[in-house]
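Notebook, p. 212. Picked up where the previous page left off. The plan for this session was modest: take the two constructs that came back from the sequencing core last week, fold each one, and keep the raw output in the notebook itself so nobody has to go hunting through shared drives later. Recording the first one now, exactly as returned: residue sequence, then the structure token string.
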Amino acid sequence: TISAQENHPPLLTPSILDFQPESAERHDSLGPMIDPRKIFSFAALERLESGGFRVRWKVPEDLPYFSGHFPESPVMPAVAIIDACQEFLRAGGLSLNPEKIILKKAKFLALVGPGMNLELMAEPLNNQWLIRWTNQDAWQGAKFQSVCEISFLLC
């Protein structure tokens, strides 16, 4: 007879917490880490009656994310969009404690590339913030194209 363990690979994989880098030099060879607070800037926020805010933002062509995320055809990775959303909330005056913010929902509806003209809008919903990005250069039906919707729960 053949046991279940012989037929199927194990369901559990090693935890990322178990990973130990081979050496400090290996970490250095990965290059500098990206600090979102130094690269995302959102000026001239417009306050909304709902308590939210919005801004028009042109995606900088020199964002460091683009150099490693398909250099021939750069696309802003999801992690960069989430970083930008958090910096946008900070620019709106929110104090974000990394230990007390939870990403509740992330819907990515279109690619974001260098030079795109976007509108970012943040609206409060109970103890959550909903952030919507729309592409101001593309129409979809009778409105601008939705790019993403991200919601954060602030604990």
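Okay, moving on. Second construct, recorded in the same format:
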Amino acid sequence: LTLRAPTGAGRIRMQDGMARVATWEGIVRREALLAIFGLKQGTFRFVTAFQGGDTTPMVEDLDVNQVLIEAARLEDELEKRREHLPATGAPLRATGETADVLDRSAELHDLPMEQVLGLVQESPGIRVFDLLKKVQRAPQVIRLAAAHLVGKRDR
């Protein structure tokens, strides 16, 4: 399955009913599936037979149902923090104590907050758009980390 969207391109390769390879704009495996499941628009093409030129090894079985549920949870969490979500092109700057903003609830334990905060501290004025290119995670994961950090700062 190949996918194209305004934000990029990717693919999911299936074998024996299991997703064996997933890629999205340099992101691979589970994170790529999360990115794909978070798409709001785009097109797809289903190819029924292996076409030459694809040398990506099929390395794992990806539980599509589990990742789909995770993608829905991420969307719910993003919606809860929508007012804290910075615009994709807005410059970000770190302010305040880092220990305060890194405090997180159990449901957000897997967010790359240290990495996102580190990049914001290293490069004041970095944009969410830049973070999406630098952090090899699904876009909605990065946006949620940024929204959480901004929300903690605003309290």
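Notes on construct two before I forget. The beta strands are 2-5, 8-15, 18-24, 27-28, 43-45, 91-92, 126-127.
Flagging for discussion at group meeting.
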